[in-house]
Amino acid sequence: MALPRPLSLAAEFEGREPISEARRLARDFLADVRYLHGLAVSDRAIDLVELVVSELVTNTRKYAPGPSLLALEVRDGCVDVAVWDSNPDLPTILPPDPTRVGQHGLEIIMATSLAFQIHREPIGKRIMASIVLADDRATDIAGR
Question: By three-state DSSP, how is residue 57 classified?
């Protein structure tokens, strides 16, 4: 079903709010997409979006203290999750290593997303991941 305009949500964080607030906003947004707008949104997609939001916002807290922006936009059967922060340094994406403790966030996001992008902005950077909204019943895997 084509949308006449994208469904979106944007939120600004100053850096003091609990990360759970960003997760709650994402979950509530997708619940509205499902129940108010009647679009198919799998429970798996909600869980993945919540995970992606949590990982990206956590990274902004660790590596770019200060303000950050979270944007969610539904388009083309996906939800785009974008997080902007003021640090222009691009993250280091480590190769998979099951013996490494921690630093698997971007690895997980890349493995569960249909698309993953990092862009430098005039100030800072924006990291975006696209998550498929409805699971593919034929393969039982979202986005693959």
Answer: helix
Q: Is residue 112 a contact partner of residue 54, using CB atoms and an 8 Å limit?
A: no
b/e burial code for range 41-58 (CB count within 10 A of at least 16 → b): bbebbbebbbbbbbbbbe
Give the distance, in angstroms, between the CA of residue 1 and the centroid of all CA atoms in the same chain: 22
Name the pTM for this structure: 0.86
Q: Which helix (H) or strand (E) holds 142?
A: none
Judge contact between 26 and 53, C-beta under 8 A: yes
136 band by pLDDT with thresholds 50, 70 and 90: low
Contacts of 142 (CB under 8 A, 6+ apart): 42, 44, 45, 48, 131, 132, 134, 135, 136
